[in-house]
Design brief:
This protein is mostly helical. The chain has 2 domains: about 100 residues, putative rabgap domain of human tbc1 domain family member 14 like domains (Helicase, Ruva Protein, domain 3); about 140 residues, Cyclin A, domain 1 (Orthogonal Bundle). The chain is about 70% helix and about 0% strand. The protein has 16 helices and no strands. Helix 1 packs across helix 6, helix 7 crosses helix 11 and helix 10 packs across helix 15. The protein is globular.
């Protein structure tokens, strides 16, 4: 709460969460949130509906308050996992709300906007980083015609919470709150490097995707402390300046593509 700046923001507006929770929410948005409730960590005892202390209702409250406070985002898939994990750790609705707010508004702007331009840009950024840092593997992925969005969108949209072991995710989030979104690229690049040999051995689209799934739940990734150490050892040249330069260049490309799609739709 301190490192992220959430405590400072809460001191400035101490009643914001209760105010947003009490406000009426667009029924369509509320329906979207309710639909995703059963899908949130379905194998976790704390979100089991038969558990009398289930966190599903507190999670619904956080997402409702956030949607009211952030109508430009409202709700989109992925937020349930992020808010759910924040709630698991803090055990406090108000704290989880503020941490979610910091993530969405400060650390990852435009990831969860209507057109998801920030997310689409970062997927392109990762593909460019991979082509420079792991060119053989990147070429292999391109040759198999595996879209980078298919590989990385889920990683980024849920900040790895739906694809990696939770202890590992929490270590990544420590870094996320401390150094910003750069760590998302560090982790992605390390995954490509650490398992490069096995990825290159796959000769079919579906086999490669299965190998990604296998590796993301492997013992190497599950050993959270050593995995994070390897992430930082393998990505020393990945600077914030380099990422921001690519975001600027490729973000313009994403906007042009979206404008072109809109133009075709209107015609």
């Amino acid at each position: 709460m301190e490192v992220s700046g959430a405590n400072k923001l809460r001191r400035e507006e101490p009643d914001l969460y209760t105010t947003m929770l009490a406000a009426d929410l667009d029924p369509v948005v509320l329906g979207q949130i309710r639909t995703d409730m059963p899908r949130t960590f379905p194998n976790n005892v704390f979100f089991d509906t038969t558990n009398p202390n289930s966190m599903q209702k507190p999670l619904l409250n956080i997402l409702k308050a956030f949607a009211n406070n952030n109508p430009n985002i409202g709700y989109c898939q992925g937020l349930n996992y992020i808010a759910g994990l924040l709630l698991l750790v803090t055990k406090n609705e108000d704290s989880a709300f503020w941490l979610l707010k910091v993530m969405m508004e400060s650390i990852l702007p435009d990831y969860y906007s209507a057109n998801m331009s920030g997310l689409l840009t970062d997927v392109k950024v990762l593909s460019e980083i991979a082509r420079r840092d792991v060119p053989v593997l990147a070429g292999h992925i391109d040759a198999l015609q595996v879209p980078w969005a298919l590989i990385a969108s889920k990683w980024f949209i849920c900040l790895y919470s739906e694809v990696l072991p939770l202890e590992t995710v929490l270590r990544i989030w420590d870094c996320l709150f401390n150094e910003g979104s750069k760590v998302l690229f560090r982790v992605a690049l390390a995954i490509l490097k650490l398992n490069e040999k096995n990825f290159l051995a796959k000769r079919e689209f579906t086999d490669l995707m299965e190998e990604f799934k296998r590796y993301l739940t492997s013992a190497e990734v599950g050993s959270c402390h050593t995995f994070i150490e390897k992430v930082f050892q393998l990505t020393p040249t990945l600077t914030r300046a380099r990422i921001e330069k690519l975001r600027h260049e490729l973000g313009r490309q994403v906007r042009d593509e979206q404008l072109e799609r809109d133009r075709r739709k209107n015609n």
